[in-house]
Every structure is written in C-alpha cells, then in structure tokens.
Design brief:
Helix content is 38%, strand content 27%. It contains three helices and four strands.
Length: 117
Amino acid sequence: MNRKKLIAIVAAAILVLGVGSAGIAYATGGDSGRDGDAVEQATGGDTGHPATGPDIEKAKRIALDQTNGGRVTGTEVQDEEGYYEIEVTRDGSQVDVHLDKNFNLLDSKADHEDSGG
C-alpha cells in the first residue's frame, strides 16, 4: 500500500471518529440545559431537572391524592424545596407539592402569579 493511500485512510478514520463522538454527545444530551441530559433526568442528577421513571410516577400519584385530583403539569427531582416537586394544575390554579426522598409530604402550596402593575 502506498504512503498517500495509508494517510488518506487514517485521515478518514479520524474524521469518522470525530463525527461519531459529536453525534454521541448530542444524542446523550451533551448540552446539560433544562431539557438536556437524559441520563441525569433518569437518575435525578443535578438539581431542578425534569424527572421520569417509576419513582416519579409514585410521586405524581401522591401529589394528586394530596390535591384531590388535577393534572400534573411539571415534575422535578432534587428541587431546592424537596427531593420531588410535582406541579399540579386544578381549576385554573397551580399547586406545588414537595416530597422527601421517601415520598413523605414536606409541603403543598399554591403558586400565586403576580398580576403585576
């Protein structure tokens, strides 16, 4: 094999690896913004991330029981006010239900938007 052909093959391999790495970083949420990193969402990584999985489903059920129904409009794990934060909307108002890691109620409070002026 001649030297030029070998260099071209090595250069192509490096290019493929670089593009592949960038694709992997993008697919796994290399941007750790609020809607990013799926791994952190599943494991409850950094504070204030949306959450998924069986534990968050249990937290949702407890929050809906606490608010006597409604619709879950947001979830977070390791929020600054508790391990789980479940936002429930009912009759046009929103209630934030905070639970500890063992699903015990910490508090439940209505969000009051400032109508400003």
